[in-house]
Amino acid sequence: MSEDPNRWEDVYWSKEEAETSWFEDRPQVSLDLIAETGAGKDAAIVDVGAGSSRLVDCLLEHGFRRITVLDISETALAKARSRLPQDASIEWVVADVLHWQPSGRFDVWHDRAAFHFLTEASHQDTYLKVMDQTLVSGGHAIIGTFALDGPTSCSGLPVARYDAALLSDRLGSGYRLVRSLSHAHRTPWGSVQRFHFALFQKV
After folding, report:
1. Which residues pair with 130 in a beta bridge?
2. Locate the Methyltransferase domain: which residues (predicted)?
3. Which of 16, 43, 141, 167 could connect to 162 by a Cys-Cys bridge, CB 3.0–4.6 Å?
4. Do residues 44 and 107 touch, judged by C-beta distance below 8 A?
5. Threshold 0.85, pTM exceeds
6. Which fold, 5-202?
């Protein structure tokens, strides 16, 4: 995001799914937070910066019918699509979220480890403007980032790290913090990355 998409094309071309540090066989933290929103099966959910994440697989298993999967890498989305049967309930979008113009609005905005790549305040502002314009009133945003004691970079890029207070301040008074939690993500090669996840409701 906010950079040459070819960088991410190269990542997904050169590595198998389970060779990336962010791989999760089952994104349980994300699933639990989505469940906490109380979203019904007809809720519109967008997974921002999804890569080839298996969240979409799990959402289909849970019966959700309106899923948008967005990433800057066409290769990443192609890998995800190849795992799944053709399903009209999934909209696949190749785009940089900073320049995305969604065709509809969403009840749940999910982002695991995309927002933290935005280290410039102007890019963060643009991202949050897109999110705010896209979320319905009363909708929920789930944002997962590296925690304050997490890595300072990922895939050779610097990241911004957050806790509940910093993220709440960044989102502003239009969002109410519902849940904050720490998560120790174990990479496929056994190292631990410390994440912070937050669930917000748009007020």
Report:
1. none
2. 45-139
3. 167
4. yes
5. yes
6. Rossmann fold (3.40.50)
